[in-house]
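Exercise 7.
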Amino acid sequence: MSTEVTFFVASLFMLSIASLAATGLVLRILQKHQILDHPVGRSSHSTPTPRGGGIAVIALLLIALYVWSRWSGEPYFPGPVLSGTSIVLLAAIALAITSWIDDLRTLSPVTRIVTHTAAVIAAMVWVGSHGMIFQNFLPFWYDAAAAALLWLWFVNLFNFMDGIDGIAGVEAASVSAGIAIVAYISPTAGLSPWPGAALAAVSIGFLWWNWHPAKIFLGDVGSVPLGFLLGWLLIETAAAGLWAPAIILPLYYLLDATVTLGRRILRRERIWEAHREHFYQLAIQRGRSHAAVSLAVALANIILIALAIASLTQPLPAIIGAAFVVAMLLIWMLREKHAAAPTSVA
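Solution. The predicted structure, written as tokens, is:
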């Protein structure tokens, strides 16, 4: 193993340990100040749980990405010209601050969507100049507008899907690890594996505390900027020509959230209100445990990572295979968990 690879792996290990330790510190602060997520009728948890673990996760991730942007040779803030990475990081900071206020006071849906939209548009000004996200199938402005809408949807769906112990950490770690692996084995795309690997590392550290039974939740302060940064990495991956992995890696979250939204729209329900109709929530209601559902998502995502790698040479078969894997996962979530048969006593 080369010195460079050893340093890379050691840095990720230390980042994961730092995330674990920082989340533990934030947990104690949240407990001291009684910043808790109290269960309501639509909750999937039954006891008050500290909310705001994303403070540690996002802070460490932003530091890691900032350091990477300096080492990669980009201009960095503060400076006369903001680099693309700087714009994305500043937008993520703005989202984290707004989302933390939302965690404490509950902002209106209009305020949230305006903030999310502003962050995406600011970042798209730079990302759009890096390449056509839809590979020249759309004119430039249509391409940029469609990519911005998809990014905005991903930010919100990532927030919507953070509803049971472990699932957000599993999805963030899986998708970002897949992005890092694809970037590493596709050097001609010009992507660095560090941002994805760093996101995976901080997510794994957080999972120590968030696995069932969760001792702490991400909160909006974590899920919103985390979804934003993951969306950025996916947009970058697609813009570099690796559009198939960008579709495959987040496919479970995309389908679960989009199908659920479509069903709610058809029933003319208020789509901005909290609910328990996502497939993973239905699985809990049908008797699955939080750990079982999150583990099933993790296993499916491992297969999706393998298919993302395969898509580098066989994109269409890999996408079809990914759709099949996710369909099987959703079907499993809809099935009732059968109770064990009673044991007869002689």
